[in-house]
Amino acid sequence: MSSHAVWVLFIIAFSVCPLPSAGTRSSIVLPSQLGLGSPSSCRAPDPNLYYQPVIGIVSHPGDGTSGRLSNATGVSYIAASYVKFVEAAGARVVPLIYTEPPEKLLKKLELVNGVLFTGGWAKSGLYFETVTKIFKKILEKNDAGDHFPLYAVCLGFELITMIVSQDNNILEEFSASDQASTIQFVESAKIEETVFQRFPPELLRKMTTDCLVMQNHHYGISPGKLLDNPKLSSFFEILTTCTDEDDKVYVSTVSSRNYPVTGFQWHPEKNAFEWGSPRIPHTEDAIQITQHAANFLVSEARKSLNRPLTQELLDNLIYNYSPTYGGKAGKGYDEVYLFAQV
């Protein structure tokens, strides 16, 4: 191309996209000129909320790996996926070791802003007694004016069903072990102010058509049996149901009518943080479910009135322990925190 042709192209380009002149530069308007303030005048956080929330997670009997990591008497564990679940939403964790003396556990409840009951198998003995005491204390704290949330996952939901109904034989058998499933919303349920309140409408729709939630349980409760029990029906509102491998319908998500208590028969933590089963959903939609569920728990915990003493909290955080990799067997939990009997 000749130099003349290049010059002609330059002139054409300049006429179409002229360089900014001094006058053009002065037309750029900064946020401060619009009255939007400057970085030094950021809006103050809500003084009614606590932005350093802590969640207490109750340990479960055993090592979480059928004895592959520890056969010690009295050992208990917390799957690291529950810890990561809480941390992903902006909170820290204090382990509530179920073998600790009751007075120590109750003291630890003053260091946290909410509690999580995990999945597992134990439904009797010291573990059941400990969960019962903590559950009653959670209700007491709410009755006294502290907004103190509870998430009860899988076994955790089964346990509070037993506790609220005062019937240790209330549960029914279902075939939903290692199964991804859809989730069906109860038409009469109001999802405002529940775990589903901030889920995008499209994600809620996909949950009813795509297998985006992970089930891993042999027990549960049917909608009819829950509604026929006056204690349960007055305490819980059924939000969702699921269907097991034998086409039996069970309650999969509940919300307490009067307390910040949410029960899941499914596992909101597994999608993002567990890899032992090939059936665990790991799609972007599935990960969003984990994140939205975690966000709701922590947003509720920020409403708590608890303001723990810094040093006492630091001494009890789960950061004082190290997780153990248990996923080499290709099943079960990928990581667990192990606790010796206290």
Automatic annotation (TrEMBL):
Residues 1-23 form the signal peptide. It is found in: Secreted, Extracellular space. The gene is LOC106778129. The active site is at C154 (nucleophile), H267, H267 (proton donor). It catalyses: (6S)-5,6,7,8-tetrahydrofolyl-(gamma-L-Glu)(n) + (n-1) H2O = (6S)-5,6,7,8-tetrahydrofolate + (n-1) L-glutamate. Belongs to the peptidase C26 family. Coiled coil: none annotated. InterPro entries: Class_I_gatase-like (IPR029062), Pept_C26_g-glut_hydrolase (IPR015527), Peptidase_C26 (IPR011697). Keywords: Hydrolase, Secreted, Signal. SUPFAM superfamilies: Class I glutamine amidotransferase-like. The keyword Hydrolase applies. It holds the Pfam family Peptidase_C26. GO terms for biological process: tetrahydrofolylpolyglutamate metabolic process. One of its GO terms (molecular function) is gamma-glutamyl-peptidase activity. It comes from the Eukaryota. Its EC number is 3.4.19.9. This is folate gamma-glutamyl hydrolase.
